[in-house]
Amino acid sequence: MLRPLVQTFRRFLQPSASWLDRQAAKQNCTLQSLMDIDERNRWFPPEFRQRFGGFHPAGGSRRYLPSFPFDRVRSDMIALLLREIVVNHVPGSFAELGVHHGWSARLIHHYCPERRFYLLDTFAGFTAHDLKHETVAVGFNAGPAFADTTVELVRANIAPVGTTLEFVPGWFPASATAAMRDDRFAFVHLDADLEAPITAGLEFFWPRLSPGGMVLVHDYNAWPGARQAVDHFRQHHPVRAVPMPDKAGSIVLLK
Ligand SMILES: C[S@@+](CC[C@H](N)C(=O)[O-])C[C@H]1O[C@@H](n2cnc3c(N)ncnc32)[C@H](O)[C@@H]1O
User: Fold this and answer.
1) How far is the CA of 141 from the centre of ligand 1 (A)?
2) Which residues line ligand 1 (CB under 6 A)?
3) How remote is the CA of residue 97 from the centroid of ligand 1, in Å?
4) Stretch 51-75: mean pLDDT, rounded?
5) Whole-angstrom Cα distance, residue 185 to residue 27?
6) Which of 68, 110, 122 has most ligand 1 atoms within 8 Å of its beta carbon, as the pocket-test mutant?
7) Contact at 8 Å (CB) between 118 and 94?
8) pLDDT at 254 over 70
9) What is the pLDDT of residues 147-192, one digit of tens each?
10) From-to residues of CATH 3.40.50.150 in the chain
11) Which fold has domain 62-254?
C-alpha cells in the first residue's frame, strides 16, 4: 500500500525530462535514461528486484554509489560487472590503473569493500615517457594532464576507506609491488587513457586474472591509445571481449 504511494511521490519529484536535457546539453552530452532496475524508473519492476536483486545480488545489500552524473551507463555497467564477480564467487583482488580523483574507485570499493583493492596512479598526471609513445595525437593526449590530485584527496573522496584499500603511487609498471606480483585478480579497471600504460596493464594483469575474472578498459571507443593497446594485445592473445555503450565506449575482456 505504502510502496506504490512512495513510488508515485518519487516520480513526481523527479526533474522533468526537458530540464535534464538542458543540463545534459550544457555538459555536451545527451540524456541517458535510467535502467529499469533503477527504482526511479517508471518501469521499475519491484517483483524482479525482490527476486533477483537488481543492481545487488538477490537477498544482498551492497552499497552502490553511482559516480558519473553524466555517464549513468558507466556507473551501472561497473556495478553490474561487480555483481557478476560477486555472484560467481570469482576469487582474487581488484585493481585500478588510473585513479585521478577516485570516482570510479569509490564506486568499486564501496560495492566490494571486502576485496583487496590496489589503486595505481602517478597521482601527478601523465608522464612525458608515456606521452612520447602515443602514436596518434588527438589533443587530449598531447600534454600533461590529471596532475591536480593527491593520495589524500582521493582518500577523502572515497571515505570511509576500509583496510582493504591499498594506494600504489608512482609510474606503472615500475610501481607494481611484490604483493601485487604474487596476487591473483578478479576485476581490473584500466583507465589510464594512453597506449603505453594500458598495454603494460594488460600484460601485467591478464596472466594474473582468475578464470571468470574481467579487465574493464575505459575509452576503447574514444581514445586511440586505448583502442590500439587492446587491439594489439588481442592480436597475440585469444581474448573474448565485449564492447560497452557507455560514453567513452569501454570494452570488457573476459577470462
Ligand atoms: C582518466 S584519469 C582516471 C579517471 C578515474 N578512473 C575516474 O574515475 O575519474 C587517467 C589517470 O591515469 C593516470 N596514469 C596514466 N598513465 C599512468 C601510468 N603509466 N602510471 C600511473 N598512472 C598513470 C593519470 O595520472 C590519470 O590520473
Assistant:
1) 12
2) 98-101, 103-104, 120-122, 125-127, 130, 146, 171-172, 191-194, 197
3) 6
4) 91
5) 35
6) 122
7) yes
8) yes
9) 999 999 999 999 999 899 999 999 999 999 999 999 999 999 999 9
10) 62-254
11) Rossmann fold (3.40.50)
